[in-house]
Amino acid sequence: MDDAAVLEVLAEADTSRSLPRLGGMARADGVAIVSERIWCFSRLDGGAPAAGQMPRPPELVVRLPLVRGLARLAVSLAPLLARGGVARSGERLVLLAALLAPIPIALVPSSFRPEALAVVIVALLAWMLRGATLRLHGAEHRAIAAAETRSLVDTWHGRARPSRFSLRCGTNFAALLVPVSLLLERVWFVPSSTLTPVFVSLAALTVTMEIWLAAQRWLSPVGRIVLLPGLALQRLTTREPALDETRVALRAVAVVLAADRVR
Fold first, then answer.
1. Within a domain: 216
2. DSSP 1
3. Which residues span the domain enclosing 197?
4. Which of 7, 91, 119, 246 is a good FRET partner for 58, with 20 to 30 A between their CA atoms?
5. How far is C-alpha 72 from the chain's CA centre?
6. More confident residue, 88 or 248
């Protein structure tokens, strides 16, 4: 899709009364934008974008409290883990190792577990936020905000600069996960075993996801207060993107919206 075709899609979207809800993720080499049906990865170097269909969990799973959160988390990783996705095989192994990190941490003596967890978190963040990721993270948020405010064309031309901060950013989820994990470790009522860190991690993920989803659904003053730590943390996990970086994200938005239009 050349720039003229991108602008045509963006202009049509700016006049649309209804658009699919968009999410995304930033990487060092580009931006992925996703809807419920489609994902597209737009490359920073201008190479051909990658695209695919988003998996859909069973309706029953989507409706079940606690389970639905884990299902949504798994679905959000589709652009990275899918065959032909944006991550190379080696990177998929790194991500899989990060997801399974609680299991080896369970084997670490309890007195050293906080340090081991800290090392894993720092290493994972360093890998995820390398290169141009911080600016592209801001570009991802800006492009999605432009769709929500119907200012896509103005954002493409630099006449509008929607916020680079997002209430739905995974950073907000991470900021909630830490205190929830610490709280569950203190109030965990099941007899301790070597797998307790694994169970606590799974419980923290499910509970945090429910809190995060509720805060997004009901953006009351209480909901916004819950998300404030994550919004503050986004000052570290995003940077102000250049216009060409914002256009990388907007190209992915255009592909997703065009695919949604012709479904």
1. yes
2. -
3. 100-131+165-237
4. 91
5. 11
6. 248
Hey, how many other C-beta atoms are within 10 angstroms of the C-beta on 12? Answer: 15
11 and 67 share one domain: yes
Question: How far is it, in rounded angstroms, from Cα 75 to Cα 70?
Answer: 9
**Cα(19)–Cα(184) distance, rounded to whole angstroms?**
38
Same domain assignment for residues 43 and 9 = yes
**Does residue 124 sit in the same domain as residue 218?**
yes
The tens digit of pLDDT for each residue in 49-97 reads 888 888 887 877 777 777 777 777 777 777 776 666 666 666 666 666 6
Q: CA 224, 229, 232, 238: dihedral to nearest 10 degrees?
A: -100
In a domain? residue 14: yes
Q: In the chain, where does DSSP find H-type helix?
A: 3-14, 59-63, 67-76, 78-81, 89-99, 102-105, 113-128, 133-148, 152-156, 170-187, 196-217, 221-237, 243-261
Q: Is residue 63 exposed (0-12), middle (13-18) or buried (19+ Cβ within 10 Å)?
A: exposed
pTM given for the model: 0.79
Q: Which spans in 26-109 are helix H? A: 59-63, 67-76, 78-81, 89-99, 102-105
